Amino acid sequence: MSVQPDPAARSSARDRLVEAAAGTFYAEGIHSVGVDRLIAAAGVTKATFYRHFPSKEDLVVEYLRLRDEAIRSQVEQMATESPHPRDALTAVVEWLADEVCGAGFRGCPFINAAAEYPDPAHPVRLLVTRHRTWFRDAVADLLRANGHPHPVPAAASLLLLRDGAMVGGYLDGGEARDLMLRTADALLNDGGS
Prior knowledge:
The chain has helices spanning 7-28, 35-42, 46-52, 56-81, 85-99, 109-116, 123-145, 151-172, 175-188. The chain is an all-alpha fold.
């Protein structure tokens, strides 16, 4: 009779794999990092890796899913803790602006992943699309609640501004932060109260 592994140990190994992947994928890119390196960084066996993730792409999807979940949680927290929709919008924009000049910033993990997975039907790209759609919709809801006359196009503009700031922050540093804040403020003041 075989002994079943402890579920807590399996969870711990899985968590270590995801943590190793998140740091390494973000710092170095997804395709440049091999499974063997992730296995070594997580301190697990190859069998443990494949028990939790049948392929490297499954691990990539989990890495991005967890990033998406964390961002959704952060935006939701800012929206619920802010006394007014404008305060929530300001908090989201400032949070993003601070991120683009943070230590170790290497651009948006979703844009980075999309660049490595060009097929729009690939599960990685589908997750990226879902994240971007959610973010644009969440911002449009905040703009609508703030009385902005054109919440959907303004949200699309803020998403584009965010994308540019993410790339600019990686390439140019803190300059992108100030420009993002000024541009977002002008966009938010376009009829909002």
